[in-house]
Specification:
The structure is a single chain. The longest helix is centred in the first third of the chain and has 21 residues, at 22-42. The strands form four sheets. The chain has a six-stranded mixed β-sheet. A six-stranded mixed β-sheet has the order 8-9-10-11-14-15, covered by helices on one side. Strands 6-7 form a two-stranded antiparallel ribbon. With 293 residues, the protein is α/β, with parallel strands linked by helices. 22% of the residues lie in helices and 28% in strands. Strand 10 (183-188), helix 4 (202-210) and strand 11 (213-218) form a beta-alpha-beta unit. The chain is globular and about 55 Å long. The chain has a single domain (4-278), classed as Carbon-nitrogen hydrolase (Nitrilase/N-carbamoyl-D-aminoacid amidohydrolase, 4-Layer Sandwich), CATH 3.60.110. It is built from six helices and 16 strands.
């Protein structure tokens, strides 16, 4: 019997145009996503992932300490507790990207993974942090991740997470494959411009090189007052052959649902023996710092 997982991605625009009250922004985005999560469940999704820092705007467009107030403990904060209740209520594995406070002054860009019965399975902390103009000032808000590249075992497959800018780095994508990931979710917040043409190249390339499914999520719309560009949506799933099997629109809130045949992973690996033929003993500098004369 085929191992079919019905997976969902949620792409959303910001719920409030007014940025003067971060907590109001957070409350509005959470309420909006509760509706979208219900839609995913009604369409039969077994697993659902939301976009990067789903419970707010992409505040990294500016450097302002007021946004620190949105951070909370994972898993003991109110958002994850709420999502544990939702996972149990909806019978759906959830990947919940939030702003995490590990302790006062120590903050991470994090995704919690919650099982269908509401159990907190663990978290991934974003490793690679952009800090560049215009409007991606992430090192002001986050420490680099320190939990490695975990894979979470669920009834619907082994799940890995790689967040936004991480996708430009093949090393972590391979770590997830070596750890047994079958579906890797990449919640993102990225705008049109330099990176858009890479959106449909890099992650299918990760899927091919590592022979797993990828779910790529991007928010939509523009966010005042920063207006750093258009978040261009186009969330999608691609298979272990790198083929896009479902794609969302460019400019609308949307719940994208696709059936992923996890047996395809073995089928592809039986043809392309990348894991057998890799030569780790020969990769002598890949994990070393750059040291040019």
């Amino acid at each position: 019997m085929a191992r079919i997982t019905r997976a969902a991605l949620i792409q959303s625009s910001n719920a409030l145009a007014d940025d003067s009250n971060p907590q109001a922004q957070k409350d509005a985005m959470i309420e909006k996503h509760l509706v979208l999560l219900k839609q995913a469940a009604e369409r039969g999704a077994n697993v659902c992932c939301m976009q990067e820092i789903f419970s707010g705007p992409y505040f990294c467009a500016e450097q302002d300490t007021r946004w620190y107030a949105l951070a909370e403990s994972v898993p003991d904060g109110p958002t994850i507790k709420l999502m544990q209740d939702q996972a149990k209520k909806l019978g759906m594995v959830l990947i919940v990207p939030v702003y995490e406070e590990a302790m006062a002054g120590v903050l991470y860009n994090t995704a919690a993974v919650i099982d269908e019965n509401g159990t907190f399975l663990g978290k991934y902390r974003k490793h690679h942090l952009p800090h560049c103009h215009p409007g991606f000032w992430e090192k002001f808000y986050f420490k680099p991740g320190d939990l490695g590249y975990p894979v979470f075992k669920t009834r619907f497959g082994r799940i890995g997470v790689y967040i936004c800018y991480d996708r430009h780095f093949p090393e972590g994508a391979r770590e997830l494959g070596l750890a047994g990931a079958e579906i890797v979710f990449n919640p993102s917040a990225t705008v049109s411009g330099l990176s858009e043409y890479l959106w449909k190249i890099e992650q299918p390339a990760h899927a091919v090189a590592n022979q797993y499914f990828v779910g790529a999520i991007n928010r939509v719309g523009t966010e005042a007052p920063w207006n750093i560009g258009e978040f261009y949506g186009q969330s999608y799933f691609c298979d272990p052959r790198g083929q896009i099997v479902a794609q969302a629109s460019r400019d609308k809130d949307e719940v994208l649902v696709a059936d992923l045949d996890l047996d395809l992973i073995k089928e592809v690996r039986n043809v392309w023996q990348f894991y057998r033929d890799r030569r780790p003993e020969s990769y002598t500098t890949i994990a070393s710092p750059i040291d040019h004369p």
